[in-house]
From TrEMBL:
Its main location: membrane. Keywords: Cell membrane, Glycoprotein, Membrane, Signal. Residues 1-15 form the signal peptide. One of its GO terms (cellular component) is plasma membrane. Residues 109-182 form the GDNF/GAS1 domain. It is found in: Cell membrane. This is Growth arrest-specific protein 1. Pfam families: GDNF. InterPro entries: GAS1 (IPR039596), GDNF/GAS1 (IPR016017).
């Protein structure tokens, strides 16, 4: 629990809140709760003598600070000495996290996905993208369903950095190949040889406008949305 209280005052707030209250408020929100769990795991190795912030801890902090509840968690007030001491442990991560969360900063695609995953709507759109764009990932075709999923994903506020992110070669997927496939198959950009690929064949179903209808119910961690995300995740892994 100590590491949960270890964030320093990086983001200002109108009213002070205890770290315990901030933790609970964040934990009960699906996106923030997910980012909080990643933070606990990824930053557990930090100690006072650490001079470098581990990359996974940076990513977790960036995702956490991208949520409204996470920002409030950043400005929590400690009520004991241990909390104050543990706050100092993540101070080493401050420069990288603040720089990455600036609007104009271009981050790696891994970080961009962490930011999107911390937001309920963006995470849902990303899951649909993973499901409907499998053929594009493999370099086969970009179906109307896939193109529609990409357009929906790009409309999400927390997906902004996905549009400008760079591949660093440490992803668990072929980032460069997928980006090239998307540009040539979905956006019909010219290949290096100046030849456009043929248009993809139309699938049986061409619409997946389901994500916008989730807006009203996705603002809280409803059982229906959680069940949907679980089913999508299981289906994607099969």
């Amino acid at each position: 629990l100590g590491i949960l209280l270890s964030l320093t005052l990086w983001v200002g707030s109108e009213a002070a809140i205890t770290c315990e209250d901030a933790r609970l408020k964040c934990a009960y929100r699906e996106g923030c709760g997910k980012a909080l769990q990643n933070f606990i795991i990824s930053c557990s190795s930090l100690h006072q003598l650490t001079r470098n912030c581990p990359e996974e801890c940076q990513n977790a902090l960036i995702a956490l600070t991208s949520t409204d509840e996470g920002q409030q968690f950043m400005s929590c007030d400690c009520d004991d000495q241990y909390c104050k001491e543990t706050k100092e442990r993540v101070e080493v991560c401050r420069p990288q996290v603040l720089r990455a969360t600036m609007n104009e900063t271009i981050v790696s695609c891994t970080v961009a996905q962490w930011i999107c995953g911390a937001d309920t709507l963006c995470s849902t759109a990303l899951n649909f993208y993973h499901i409907f764009c499998r053929s594009m990932f493999l370099g086969k075709r970009c179906s109307p369903r896939c193109e529609n999923s990409i357009n929906i994903l790009r409309r999400q506020e927390k997906a902004a950095k996905l549009n400008t992110c760079f591949c660093n070669g440490r992803e668990d997927y072929d980032c460069d190949a997928i980006r090239k496939n998307m540009e040539t198959m979905c956006f019909m950009k010219k290949t290096p040889h100046g030849v456009k690929p043929p248009p993809p064949a139309a699938p049986d179903v061409i619409s997946n406008e389901v994500i916008p209808r989730l807006h009203s119910s996705a603002t809280s961690s409803s059982p229906a949305l959680i069940t949907l995300l679980c089913l999508l995740y299981i289906h994607w892994r099969l």
